[in-house]
Specification:
- This protein is an alpha+beta fold.
- It has helices at residues 7-25, 28-70, 76-99, 155-158, 186-197, 233-239, 257-269, 283-291, and strands spanning 119-128, 131-136, 163-167, 170-171, 201-209, 215-221, 231-232, 244-245.
- It folds into three domains: 34-70; 74-98; 105-291, OB fold (Dihydrolipoamide Acetyltransferase, E2P) (Beta Barrel).
- The protein is 44% helix and 14% strand.
- The strands form two sheets. A five-stranded mixed barrel has the order 1-2-3-6-5. The chain has a two-stranded antiparallel ribbon with strand order 4-8.
- It starts with 6 loop residues before the first helix and ends in a 6-residue tail after the last helix.
- The relative contact order is 0.09.
- This is Probable endonuclease LCL3.
- GO terms for molecular function: endonuclease activity; hydrolase activity; metal ion binding.
- It is a single-pass membrane protein.
Length: 297
């Protein structure tokens, strides 16, 4: 005599129970949609498990044959152990280099500077015309960013979780702060940078930290048309005349100095932005004049 209650019957009862519970709290259409979604997930999971089982089953005899043919039986356990530890070490290395989130500049190691890494993230704020706040999102979409993991929005959540990035090789007009008057085109430069970066995915290559603990970086942003080369933000700013090539001590250019200088010369010849003025005062000189107590020229 067989069991009075088979596995199949139990599954049907469980399904009926789930529908009954959902029906008490949701409209019928929503209940049916949820149950269908669960069936799809379960079916997909079973399919993946089956595929994995078949792959392992087909690969195991081949691996065993190779080991039996090439590696003595007494050595095989050591080879397997070494392979497992090697795979684990590789996974840890990939995580540390590519998937571990860097919350602030304090977590940047010397290996991450000098242009050795490109970091991907979202710009959460633009407070000045040549720097911004950057939230690191390693791995991008494939790591769940945008659909499973999300960039915080409130200032409270973002506190201590962003890097302050300074654009390499470019100096934008200074805005008004600490009693210092704004330079011409400072507002336009700030609005332009916000339009280019705020809320967008940006790729930064860090080169150094400045005295304000900002991460001096070359930054790129995607163009409107997909698959075209990304825009170098510093270069674009020089092109429209909203900045000058930064020439102070410790300046970083990421290998773009010659291109920066050519672009600045072209903007100057066309009288773009700041170059439309008869007299152009650099941001660095503007600050010096303020510190000396005003323009005494």
């Amino acid at each position: 005599m067989g069991w009075p209650f088979t596995r199949k019957d139990k599954d049907k009862d469980d399904e009926a129970t789930k529908k009954s519970v959902l029906a008490d709290t949701l409209p019928e259409a929503a209940t049916e949609a949820i149950m269908q979604a669960r069936q799809v997930v379960a079916s997909t999971q079973k399919s993946m498990e089956s595929t994995l089982d078949r792959t392992v089953a087909s690969a195991t005899p081949a691996l065993s044959a190779i080991m039996a043919d090439k590696i003595p039986a007494s050595v095989q356990p050591y080879v397997i152990t070494s392979a497992v530890f090697g795979a684990g070490a590789l996974a840890i290395m990939i995580y540390r280099r590519q998937l571990r989130r860097i919350p602030t500049s304090a977590y940047l190691t010397p290996d991450m500077l000098q242009g050795r890494r490109v970091l991907r993230g979202k710009v959460t704020s633009v407070g000045d015309a040549d720097n911004f706040r950057f939230y690191h999102t390693p791995g991008g979409f494939l790591s769940g960013w945008g659909w499973l993991r999300h960039v915080p929005k409130s200032n409270q959540e973002l506190k201590g979780q962003t890097m302050h990035v300074r654009l390499a090789g470019v100096d934008a007009p200074e805005g008004a702060h600490f009693g210092m008057p704004a330079q011409p085109f400072s507002k336009e430069a700030l609005e332009w940078l916000r339009s280019q970066l705020l809320g967008k995915t940006v790729f930064v290559k860090p080169y150094a930290k400045d005295r304000y603990d900002r991460v001096v970086s070359v930054a790129w942003v995607r163009r409107t048309i997909p698959f075209l080369p990304k825009k170098n933000v510093s270069l674009e700013m020089l092109k429209i005349g909203y900045g000058q090539v930064y020439k102070q001590a410790g300046a970083e250019y990421g290998g773009f100095l010659a291109e920066f200088e050519r672009t600045e010369a072209a903007a100057k010849a066309r009288k773009k932005g700041i170059w439309s003025q008869k007299v152009v005062v650099s941001a660095a000189e503007h600050k010096k004049q303020y510190l000396r107590g005003g323009d005494n020229s």
